[in-house]
Amino acid sequence: MQVNSWNDRSRKDELPLPRKSEAGFTLLEMVVAMVIMMVGLLALAATIGFALTVTNKGRNVTNSKLLVVSILEQMETLRNTRQLSFEEISNSASPNFAGFPNTFQPVSVNPGPDGIYGTGDDLIDAGADGIYGTADDFSNPSLARPGLSRQILITPLSGSLKKIQVTLRASGVRGATDESKGVSYLNNDANSNFLP
Predict the structure, then answer these.
(1) Is the pLDDT of residue 194 over 60?
(2) pTM for the predicted model, two decimal places
């Protein structure tokens, strides 16, 4: 029996021992995985950049439309409150009002001395004393909203109806100019929108 057991042992010694598994990734596999991950991250970054651009453009379009609507509503308010008469709401000057210029003007955060947005005096600053019409009044370009200009065209259609068209230009992405237009009609009946 000893012989057999010695033979069994020698046979075991002669058999190749199983090697420990050296499972893992090769350098090439790691480089390929990193390239795939990098392409995915770059695609994600590009998607985020595109989403931000679209969001900003959408916000600018919304703000432009709101500004156009506010100008059109201002015309009704001027008529309804009788701050301006129906005849004074025009592109030409009258004895009491300079009129709305029909050229593109900067959009101001200040209505100027006349208190009406969209007129030629919107960039006038009251100066240190805060009172319009004194010697320290000056034209202040910093009152203009950057990248925005507007045009107000008022066309009489009859003695009691005017067409008001507001065009707003805004600086867009990569130097492009975006334009929004709004049209409204104004009649000379200041009470037509109110219940008695």
Answers:
(1) no
(2) 0.67
Tell me 1's DSSP state: -
What digits encode the pLDDT tens for the residues 60-108? 788 888 888 888 899 888 888 888 888 889 998 888 888 899 999 999 9
Q: What integer pLDDT is reported at residue 56 of this predicted model?
A: 81
Distance CA 133, CA 142 (A): 20
16-29 average pLDDT score:
74
Q: Cα 103 to chain center, whole Å?
A: 23
**How far is the C-alpha of 58 from the C-alpha of 43, rounded, in Å?**
22
All residues at 6 or more sequence positions from 88 whose CB lies less than 8 Å from its CB, including other chains? 94, 96, 97, 99
φ/ψ of residue 22, rounded to 5: -110, 45
**Calpha distance 182→61 (Å, rounded):** 13
- 120-152 per-position pLDDT tens digit: 888 999 888 988 888 899 999 999 988 889 999
User: Given the structure tokens 């069994």, which residue do they identify?
Assistant: 8
Neighbour count for residue 26 (Cβ, 10 Å): 8
Look-up of token digits 């058999």: 15
Reduced 3-state DSSP string for 83-142: CCCCCCCCCCCCCCCCCCCCCCEEEECCCCCCCCCCCCCCCEECCCCCCCCCCCCEECHH
